[in-house]
Structures are given as C-alpha cells and as structure tokens.
Amino acid sequence: MKLEMAHLYGKSGMSMPVDLSEQIEDSAAYPHIVGFMEPVKIEGILRNENECFILEAKGETKVSLLCDRCLTPVATEIHFNIEERFSHTGRDDEETETFSGDQIDLADYVKRGILEALPMKVVCREDCKGLCPVCGKDLNTGDCGCDTTEIDPRFESLRALFNVDEEV
Ligand SMILES: [Zn+2]
Ligand SMILES: [Zn+2]
Questions:
Q1: Residue 125 Cα to ligand 1 middle (Å)
Q2: How buried is residue 72: exposed, middle or buried, by Cβ count under 10 Å (0-12/13-18/19+)?
Q3: Secondary structure of residue 111 in the 3-state scheme
Q4: What is the Å distance from ligand 1's center to 160 Cα?
Q5: What confidence tens digit (pLDDT) does each residue in 110-140 have?
Q6: Which H or E element spans position 62?
Q7: How far is the CA of 67 from the centre of ligand 2 (A)?
Q8: Which residues pair with 49 in a beta bridge?
Q9: How far is the CA of 143 from the centre of ligand 2 (A)?
C-alpha cells in the first residue's frame, strides 16, 4: 500500500485525497487474526506543509477472529486512524517519519493501526457456551454429558491449587 508523493512536491499548502485498498493475504504477522475477509481500505488526505507531508486517514477492514470461548471464527470490523507526518530523508526533524524516493509504504502504519484496534476478545454470540473443559466439544452444538456442572470457571485456578495439595 503505497502513497505516491511526487505530485505534491514543491506545492506547500496543497493537499490530495488518499484512497487506497489492498487485500492482505498473509495474516501470519497479525497475532489473533485468522484472515482478512475484506481488503484494507485507507481514505483520507495528504497535505504538503512546507515540504512536510501530513497524512490524516481512516482505515477499515474486516477480519476473522476466533471466539474467545468456542474458537469459531467471528467476522469483526476494524476501524483505525493513521495520522503521520513524513519528510524526505535529509529534511527530517524529530517529529516526522522519513521516506526516500517518491513513495511512502504505509504497510507498517496500517499494521500498527489494525493491531491497536483489535478487540481484546470477541465472542461469536453473547450466550456462547464455549467448549467443554473436559472433552473439548462445542457446547453450542449440544451437551456432551461430561460432569462439569460443579465447576465455576472463576474457581478453576483455586481448584487446581487444591488438587496440587491433595497430591502432596
Ligand atoms: Zn463462541
Ligand atoms: Zn465434555
């Protein structure tokens, strides 16, 4: 995802619209994301201010995340902002990112935006029953008959402690 810079050179005060779209095929670099269901779209404006280039853009995409309880993929819309100041290598000051050539690769900024916008947890539905802690069956598809009724997940760690004590 590249910003073409050359048309803004030498035109302080000018701005141009930014409208980019790219499908991310490899989600391996994105922890928790199973896959991208829609291209990443970036829309905004790029402004030349005394040969410092200011990008203000909104990004959106739709990704597939795993349900926190049952591990079913859940389609999740992601919205993020990119606000960066760029300047050519050699003209840089402390507040700008630098670039060389006539393009700025937005990949890193897009990635950061997406990762910061990821929800901590998603559930496929509010009343998702999750997986059976004993046999692993998806309890949304029916009961498995395992004896788990006494276990409140909040006491799971406590129970583990008691079990350790019993074994000693
Ligand atoms: Zn679920
Ligand atoms: Zn079970």
A1: 6
A2: middle
A3: helix
A4: 25
A5: 999 999 999 999 999 999 999 999 999 999 9
A6: strand 52-66
A7: 18
A8: 52
A9: 7
Between CA 12 and CA 123 the distance in angstroms is: 48
Q: 117 is written with which tokens?
A: 């916008």
- Report the separation in Å between the CA atom of 61 and the middle of ligand 1, taken as the mean of its atom positions: 22
pLDDT in tens, the chain (168 residues): 899 999 999 999 999 999 999 999 999 999 899 999 999 999 999 999 999 999 999 999 999 999 999 999 999 999 999 999 999 877 657 788 989 889 999 999 999 999 999 999 999 999 999 999 999 999 999 999 998 666 566 656 665 666 555 444
> Residue 140 Cα, ligand 2 centroid: separation in angstroms?
12
First to last CA, the chain: 59
Distance from residue 156's CA to the centre of ligand 2 (Å): 16
Helix (H) or strand (E) holding 157: helix 156-167
User: Collapsing DSSP states into helix, strand and coil, what is residue 156?
Assistant: helix
Distance 140 CA to ligand 1 centre (A): 8
Outline where 19-144 has alpha helix (H).
107-117
